[in-house]
Target: Cyclin-like domain-containing protein
Amino acid sequence: MLKVDAHYGFSALTAVLAVNYLDRFMSSLRFQKDKPWMTQLAAVACLSVAAKVEETQVPLLLDLQVEETKYVFEAKTIQRMELLVLSTLHWRMNQVTPLSFLDHIIRRLGLKNNLHWEFMKRCERLLLSVIADSRSVCYLPSVLATATMLHVIKEVEPCNPTRASRTAYGYP
Model:
């Protein structure tokens, strides 16, 4: 899913939503884990729904299957799976995501220049690598956002213990 998202230049939010939909759908009682093709079909459908929610231009359903795939589905089959995903998730498609928190926190900090965009892009890249790991669903979106921001801040400005101790004692 993330490769297709990158292939079409979708926003990070589209990728996060697609993963969110897929995780929620797969954890439902309606998902049949014993059918390997169903996971791929559900992933395509979730990406399609996320793109329709977030993007202004969405490729055709057949074109969302750009990577080497084991199965190729007809558009009608993907549409039926989209409806199954939507009904299973009770049409709750505007989920609070870690990106929601990132955006809110960054705006509250008053970052409005190029630094804001660079910081946000770094956070998005890190978050996309984190959500690829299924263990990330165990954490609240706010926790993922905060951890992501802290990690990026530490990357950008590593702690200088000498300077910190000098500042603590009143030295410049």
Residues 2-88 form a domain with the Cyclin A; domain 1 fold (CATH 1.10.472.10). Confidence is low (pLDDT under 50) at residues 165-169.
